[in-house]
Amino acid sequence: MQLVRFYQKLTLTRKNGEKYTLVSDGRLPYSIPLGQSNAYSKSTSPSTTQVTIQNLTPTHRDWFQKGLHVELISGWIDDEVTSFKTTTNGTISSVTPPEEGDDDNTLVFNVKDGTDYDNIKAIKIKTSKMIRERASQKELKSAISAYSKKQDAAYSKWKKDHSHATSAQISAKKKEIAAQKRKYTTNARANYSKTKKALDSKKKMKKKTVYEYMSFKKKTKSSTIIKAIAKKAGIKIDTLSLATNHVWINGYTAKKKPMDCIREIAKACSTDITYPHGQLVIKNIESGHKLGLYIQKETGILAKAVRQTDGDGKTWQLSFLYRSLTVGDVFHYKDDRLDGWVIVLNGTNEYEIGGTPTSSPVVELWDDYKKAQKKKIDARKKKDREAKKKADKDAKKKAKDKRSKRTKDKKTKSKKSSDKKSEGKN
Fold first, then answer.
1. pLDDT of residue 246
2. Are the beta carbons of 270 and 327 closer than 8 angstroms?
3. Tell me, what's the pLDDT at 2?
4. What integer pLDDT is reported at residue 420 of this predicted model?
5. 348-381: buried (b, 16+ CB within 10 Å) or exposed (e) per residue?
6. What is the pLDDT of residue 80?
7. Which pick of 66, 339, 355, 426 has the fewest CB atoms within 10 Å?
8. 3-112 placed in CATH 2.30.110
9. Predicted confidence (pLDDT) per residue in 286-327, tens digit
10. SS3 string of 171-218?
């Protein structure tokens, strides 16, 4: 297969809904100079793609504003087939206009790949509950405190208005204020006691509206919690496939931000959260997205595979002609150092204007990665089984203790009744 020309198509959606399209396909002089740098990793937040465009008119340049939607499609026009893939699909997060004296009028902007849900606040649900109507001691204290402050203010005003008052007059005024405070406090406490006694005797109930964090009952599955939180928060999940559907033995309360809750739950399920091409995916990447892609010398290797020295030494840095790769993609790679199906863990796809379109992924042999992940998931499943076993054991013991107490109380009550009858006969 002969890779002939690198192709890029950028579509900007303006505020009025109008679409503005730029095409860069290497056919001078009509091709727009357009560069890109797309970094991706196993991050639980959207990645960022940097786009560079040259030679735009001032009018067209001004169209690129923060918050507008951009889609960038990239690929190769080859001698057999033309195939393109989405590189990024998101909103402009920042714009850097050309500097003075820049002959190429270079515009640089960043695109957030997908929707960032991290700013959504913790969810509180409006609910009503019946509570016992009681006299409020808090209101009593507030009333006494407010009256005391009012009297202190009255004293301060009196002192200001009577700046020439004698010591005897000041002392008398203080005693008067103190007496008024004592009288108010005594009456307020008496009224509180009277109200409290009346309400306690009636046992009157009233409905109270409260706002509480989303909560889930005992033994709720993680998938149920994630779906409910996402729906309430307006989070669009493209794929949800948990490695282990962890059961929350004691229930779950979503006190954190929705995405933080989802991250916490996914971690408990030993499941990855990624944003491939801007889509929120909750799924372990070892299941892989197998591409019909074979990278070898004839299909664009630019440099031999380099083993990474950090970690366990199982990962490799590759470099070949641009492919729109992302985390979890699986393809076949072959050179004299590495040969086999590999899975993408992180990397960059980039094209510098005038340079060579390049992909530089960090990969691991797919079989090795799957074995390591299986070991991790099996350990999580074992931990969940042990937790369930302990919870069931504790529940049985609690039920047994409750039955024993009920039997004991019944016997005690029966004995007391027998003793009373015996006393009556005597």
1. 94
2. no
3. 64
4. 66
5. bbbbeeeeebbbbbbbbbbeebbeebeeebeebe
6. 52
7. 426
8. yes
9. 887 888 899 999 888 999 999 998 767 899 999 999 998 999
10. HHHHHHHHHHHHHHHHHHHHHHHHHHHHHHHHCCEEEEEEEEECEECC
Domain boundaries, the chain: 3-112, 134-203
In this prediction, residue 9 has a pLDDT band, given cuts at 50, 70 and 90, of very high
CB 221 within 8 A of CB 245: yes
| Tens of pLDDT, residues 21-75 | 999 987 766 678 999 999 998 888 888 999 999 988 888 888 999 999 999 999 8
pLDDT given at position 391: 86
Residues 6+ apart with CB under 8 A from 353: 33, 34, 35, 52, 54
